[in-house]
Amino acid sequence: QVRGYLEFMQTAQRYHGRPIFALFCGDKDAEGRSWCPDCVTAEPVVRKELHNMPDDSVFIYCLVGDRTYWKDPNNEFRKNLKLTGVPTLLKYGTPQKLVEEECFKADLVRMLFTED
Amino acid sequence: DYDLIIIGGGSGGLACSKEAAALGKKVMVLDYVVPTPLGTSWGLGGTCVNVGCIPKKLMHQAALLGQALQDSRKYGWQYEEQVKHNWEVMVEAIQNYIGSLNWGYRVSLREKSVTYLNSYGEFIEPHKIKATNRKGQVTYHTAETFVLATGERPRYMGIPGDKEYCITSDDLFSLPYCPGKTLVVGASYVALECAGFLAGLGLDVTVMVRSILLRGFDQEMAEKIGAHMETHGVKFIRKFVPVQASMPGRLKVTAKSTEGPEVFEEEYNTVLIAIGRDACTRNIGLDTIGVKINEKNGKVPVNDEEQTNVPYVYAIGDILDGKLELTPVAIQAGKLLARRLYGGSSTKCDYINVPTTVFTPLEYGSCGMAEERAIEEYGKQNLEVYHSLFWPLEWTVPGRDNNTCYAKIICNKHDNNRVVGFHVLGPNAGEVTQGFAAAIKCGLTKELLDETIGIHPTCAE
Question: What is this structure's pTM?
Fold first, then answer.
């Protein structure tokens, strides 16, 4: 689990060479609730499918920041990782990703984890 | 098991599957890419997405940008750097985009509950296919109706060394190294488009042509395309055919004249074979279930509802005998077929007056008949051809040719000067032609054209 763009990139680099899946969500408050309602829906769906990831995979759960940071069109996630929405579940280094409501569907999540 | 099984996940197959699924049917799509002799393969989406229209247009654009950079100095842009092109950067960016399209189709099929198998499908008995995946695992599936949408693959020359040393368009768009000095064999639009953008990227390109350019296209336009490419650095060797490719050190091609004993020999970095494409119909068990194909070209004859001689088997796309090999045609045929089968529709695909564009360095857009075809159909005396050279305004400042861009319309004198052929050679020909295609569908005549006021300053006016 990481928070912010820098931490995400450092962690991804550390696991270079292994399949990396990342779920990007809005920050959580003191009670553990995200400001992003779709992220609240998606997280349990994604976590339930984690066992389908290939051997040697790494799963990075990344909190992107608060709502204001996310809304800024120039934030690093938008600019460098080309994220367009949260939640986003992606296979790092490939064009394969699921965005927003796509993350609610267990079979799509499973497809992302098992597709080669 | 299924209402509909479609063999082939390209433009036609995917369009048909999504439409049928939207109409509530249980659909399966099989897509499998047999690797090229060099081992190249690709994902879901068919030729257009992976090794056709999409990467072609992007590489054409890369070449056009090179030309634009040259023009830019005349427009006042000043920079010191000498501009060079990096092949690997371009290929990576294009392949990334294609990868997102492959993934997009996977998600799309999943969301519409279409079953997708990355397996090679073949008929083993009526209504039943055998599906073999990459690992050799076999499954069997049955359906009430089948659609063949297997498309085509590049043809090789059948000469020593062709498969070992030469590449085709299947390999070009993901080539991990810059092709360098290239020989393109063929005079199809694939050959000319590829030769065109490779030259535009700064490479040394030669095109070897057996006889004419762009067979089947208007020959006046074809020759103009060739002439333009020649003045812009593409070398043409006409009336020669390769007889051998070997690799004594570098890649060497030996060719013979079609008109005499003359022999030609030269070394290249890359030889790209683009002499034609063959339908993938020979090894899918069609003979087992009695589907007739045209033995000469392997294509499938169908009636005007895309039905083969076997009532529960239909076919769409490039494999159709006597029909146009174009993505939008396949998509339209696929969608309408699904609607006729499951949606109670009776609309058939209209193959008349389909517009096309060849994306050579100077683009060629057309809709309707070539001049030769129109003469054949109506007789020379019954036709009036109106034509004009034009000089795009954007070409004036950089001093580009003023005698090159050309447009003509062929009109039927006995039908109110109805436009039966529209041809334009110039920048953005595809964008220009699309609108005229709609006008032709509405029965465009010379008079209507004369009454339509132009948009100034444009090429289209």
Answer: 0.94
